[in-house]
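Q: Can someone sanity-check these two? First one:
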Amino acid sequence: MHEDFKRNIHILLYRTLIDCPVAFIKLCMFWSSLLILVFIHIGLVNLYLRRPWKYFLHTLLNLLGLYILVQGIYFADRLRVEPVEGYARAAAIVFQRMNAVVLVLVLLLESLSLVFYYTELWNYVAKHPTVRSIKEGLDYLPTGLLYYWEDGALMFANLEMDLLAQKMLGRSIYAVGNGMTLEKSIREGKLSEGCKFMDRGPQLTVKLADQKVWQFHMREFLIGKWTVHEVLAYDITEENRLHEEVYIQYGELRKIAGRLRHYSENMRELTHEEEVLQAKIQVHDEIGRVMLATKRYLAGAQDAPTREELLPLWQRMMFLNHTATEPGKEENAVRTILEVSELLGIRTEISGKITSLTPVEREIFMMGARETLSNACRHAGAQHMWISIIKEDGGTTIKYQNDGKVPKGEIIEGGGLSGLRKQTEHAGGHMAIATGNFFILTIFLPERGKTDAGKYGSTEKYGTVGGTAISGPDC
């Protein structure tokens, strides 16, 4: 039995094709033909992907070997039933003597090489973009893409742009067949029912029936000598929702700002009334002091003031009474200041356009004029007063200057100057007092919505400025 097994193995290993059954030969021919078809497919794919020529040459060599193998098997099988002449007879005789095991091993090696080629090709396709993969990627972008030639012929349109065309025109972009038609319809607003054109700046924006908002960007560029038109569509639904929310909030903020302005105006009115009340109280107190001093003078009391001392007191009382009881219009108020300053013996010059001042600036201007005239008369003994109004970028500067005695002691801002500073800062401005050769009070009032902190925070020309106390008598 052992000898029979060895004999069967020997017969199997050394059996040639001429000894093999017809079915075996037919199976080998089919196997070889199938390998040829698969290698042809691999070669065509390599050409399509434009891979290096070495991959194509490897495939070509395998195809050549398989072709010779198939021809040899075919002629070897044919020689058994009919005579064969020429080179076919020589090939048939050679393949008839081929060992069947060797033939199977060759086919198995070709099959393994085929598996290797397919694996390598699959890895290459997975790692390198191809025309098909690029097209698939563009098709599934959330952005609409459309490219067409100058005559309108479509070059490329992805699925998102085709879907947008169906929603806006009621037809597929491929059914329209012309890219210019879509662009013209968007520009002219000729859209399907439920779609509407929205004004969102230089770009074209369309709101679809499903409430989604798309923005279209269009441009032209050259490919060689050919002009290509590009249309890009972006989904800005979320951005549009945020824009509408911001617009609504902006409207609400405007209402709040209006209420705040109204409140601020009421506060200014209340402050003005408070200032008028304080001025009236000051007038009442001043009249009382002047009347008592005059009574002592008329009675000939020993501690009574002289006539020269009473005259400035009566002048100040008349000034305070005039400014506190006759506000009138700005022209009347300015005329009053000039008249009272003349009565006080102070020549006042006003430069700049008073009519250019806002109501708030005008009110602060009048308040500053009253306080500086009063102090120039009471403490400085001034002969001249210069008031200037300067309109400049960002705000208005008002300066009050007199030629009286410069304060030497510490200036403590009393009710008048402190009230003026409070009113100025309430309006967003700044007040500064400078002493040098002259006494100068400067007020800066910014335009509405602007601030200029520290514009007069310090000055080297005049010395200490701003909130620091300056030498001089009590004001």
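And here is the second, same format, sequence then tokens:
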Amino acid sequence: MTTINKSMLGAIAANDDLPPIPDYVQALSFMDLRQPRGSGVKFWNVEPTGVYGEDCLRGKECARELLDYVAAHPTNGNMYLLSWIVCDMASRGVDHRGEPVLKGAHDRLHE
């Protein structure tokens, strides 16, 4: 599978008939395009290290990056980025312990 470097995104978007690449995908280090191209955005494209503390620090870095981006680009669409990120996190299925990500919320809803 071909990996797309973020520096290549602008040139790729200009040279094909697919939808334009959203600015936030180009700006935020933890986002990427789904493959095949045109099938959407990976809003949380961060691989866990397996070390809880390191993963928490990376999450804080990404949160700061997101807040800075939204502050600089306060649009109606950008206010939904956090919810899309959380959905992608949840779709990964398991947390750092191998437990289902939504297990706690699921268990509470079904008590």
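A (reply): Looked at the second one. The longest strand covers residues 32-33. The two ends are 43 Å apart (CA to CA).
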